[in-house]
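tool=predict chain=A
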Amino acid sequence: MSEHLDLWKLLAGLGIFMFGMFLLEDSIKALSGRAFRKLIAHYTKGRGRSIGSGLFVTAALQSSSAVSLMVLAFVGAGVMSMENAIGVIMGSNIGTTCNAWIVATLGFKMQIETFALPFIGIGALLMIIFGTTSKIFQASRLLIGFGFLFLGLDYMKTSVESFAQGFDLSHIPSYGPWLYLLAGALMTALMQASSASIAIVLTALNGGLITFEIGAVLVIGANVGTTITVLLGSIGGTQAKKRVAMSHLVFNVLTAVVAFFSIHGLVWVVKLFFDTTTNSVMGLALFHTLFNVLGVVLFFPFIALLARLLVRAYPDHKAVLTVYIDKTPAEVADAASEALKKEIHHLLEECQLYNLRALNIDEKLVFDHELPFERNLKKRFTLDDLYENIKLLHGEIFSFYARMQGQKLDQAEVGELERVIFASRNIMNSLKNFKGIRLNLEEFDSSENVYLNAQYKLFRRRLVEIYHDINRITELASKEEQYRELLKAFVHIEQADKKFIRQTMDAISAKKIEDMEIASLLMVNRLFTQACRLEVFGLKDLLLAPDQIKDFDRAMDVKDLMDEESAKTAAPEQ
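tool=predict ok
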């Protein structure tokens, strides 16, 4: 039997395991609708219920690691509270002792890793068959995530299994209990399965290679070693996931300390039920259950305290997204109104930044200054991160608006507030349009059709031009000038839209594009044009006086009537 550590298999297992963890959490987030959240909350609500859930699920799956990883995913997805997560983990420690009883009584160990290939196979087939918007698609990703999770654990386990089994425990009988404690922890950490290491200990005990006391210490060490799986799962995760991993470590280590220093008393209790000289494996299974139950009983009253301490140790790092309203009290109406307008203008700039990056346009072509998100947020963020931060910023703007509404305001102030908050909604709708067409634009850029490539470049040029117009308007000192330039910017958008339609019709006549490409191109142009209009409308409500806003809206109404008449004139008679 080889006694060498298969390092590459270990690393491959770690990579597969981490990918499975990502799929698991991501699919849980996608599936965690209101009903699902209520279900999870119901069965893990309260300390007793969460401990019971952890016990029974672990007993069924025969893997405390898998249960702990699910807890990690649920907490990361925001569907389980910290206190309930600690309760589930405590229960899983008792549940995992069922495997020792199975080995001790039947000599059989359930290998849940064998579910990995069916999970991956069935999940992959469902993913191919059903569309990406289907819930079955997300459920299939969940299955694949579980499959990769178990497959990764199996790879890590088998990469060191022969090495661990070739480790002769009888070679170190005189080094004292501390070394056995360390050996048990190390063996479980390497194999990524406490049930496997405990099975080895039971085998060694049954063969007479070790004494009952040595086996008891090794089992205590195995309980500590199993925490490495959850610690690995929390790497690079959120603060909530780090709290769960640390709670698992703290609980298991403290339970191990209590069990280690109480070992003689626990062994005495075991001997009341089993003769450890003739039925040592049953005695060790009882010892395993006994000290885990003792740990739960001792730490049950301190679950809430542990949760609070972990929140302090790993606080949520809430980035300050606002620039103006966080420094301004909502009670001072004039100052608050001005701060709200500035914050919504900040929102507009961040939305423009997203739109520019969605089309791979260097923002320096539009902005001559660093935007607040880039300046204040320490880490480099992806396009999806930027989108989420903009949504959070909009939420804070609405919260500030709600606080302002709670103050005593006159009718004019109420009207102004409604206009500026409507501006923020137009800006966010513009952002949503760009998010919706982002993938289509990427397809145009990478298409083999030369005409689509040219249209992608045209969309980029149109966006830069309208943003130059918009940003120039914000710098004008006169509201009258701003009014005129906003109308010109709107006309510019409409002219670009009509030119695009004409060019597309010519391309269709020349058979430069296929039918499906026509539909995508027209849809993208409609959402693109609408997004540009919404930004102009947002700026109109943000910058202009009430009378000018009315004049602008009347001009839009006249324009719509003229468009309707033009359409009727151009339409062929039936």
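Residues 212 and 280 are 7 Å apart (CA to CA). Residues 411-446 form the longest helix (36 residues).
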